Amino acid sequence: MNGLMKATADLSLFANGFTGRQPLFDFVDVGLGKERADHKVKGMSFKRDDCAGGLISTSSEVFNFFVTIPQCKHVVLGVSHDSGYVPFLERFAADKSISNRITLLEGYQVSPGQRLDKPLAVDKGLAQAIQKKNLCHWLFLKGHCDGCKRNHGHPPLGAEEQDALWVLARQGRCFTQKKGKICEGPTCIYGHAT
């Protein structure tokens, strides 16, 4: 195996599992845009701290803290596909006690506007039970239906039932993507292949 992920959903699953594993584990999506990851790694991202009397830098301080303490066994850094972060990391290259504890994940580029669906972990039995009810995806996921032959009379769904219905709706491929276009609909209920 070459170590590359087969689908972007794998990255999302990894991020959710990684971040949830320990309180000090972070997986940060800096969003789209040239050099946004560079700014995040370099600490150019700021947050408001009224107690400190203004804005304070966050990312580079956190990175510097963890790579320099012996209690931190490893730092995994996933960055963009360009090399704008290299100057920031070069200062750690000479110190093998630090550089050997840093792993860079290979970045890849996602097209602007590309729709990625959040992976959902749903009990298979629950999904089958929801499927048997033939619920209207539009009504229960978007709140309205223009008229279809599915079940509209079911009581409101709980969170797990709604996730199961999302999984079922995503089994149908997005109509916009079927036409070879990029789906930019934030509430599209259908699946988006990558």
Sequence-ordered SSE layout with sheet pairings:
Elements: H1 8-21, H2 36-42, E1 46-49, E2 54-57, H3 59-68, E3 75-78, H4 86-90, H5 96-99, E4 102-105, H6 124-132, H7 137-142, H8 159-169, H9 175-178
Parallel strand pairs: 3-4
Antiparallel strand pairs: 1-2
Account of the protein in words:
With 194 residues, the protein is mainly alpha-helical. Helices cover 36% and strands 8% of the residues. It has a two-stranded antiparallel sheet. It has a two-stranded parallel ribbon with strand order 3-4. Helix 6 crosses helix 8 (159-169). The two termini are 20 Å apart. Residues 44-58 have low confidence and may be disordered.
Strand content: 5-15%
How many strands, which pairing sense, and closed or not: the largest β-sheet?
A: 2 strands, antiparallel
Evaluate the radius of gyration.
22 Å
Neighbour order of strands in the largest sheet: 1-2
Q: What is the number of E strands? A: 4
Q: Write down the overall mean pLDDT.
A: 75
Residue windows where pLDDT falls under 50 for at least 5 positions = 44-58
Shape: elongated
* Structural class label: mainly alpha
From the N-terminal CA to the C-terminal CA, the straight-line distance is 20 Å
Task: Kindly list the characteristics that best describe this protein.
9 helices, mainly alpha, elongated, two-stranded parallel ribbon, 194 residues, 4 strands, two-stranded antiparallel sheet
Quick overview:
The chain is mainly α.
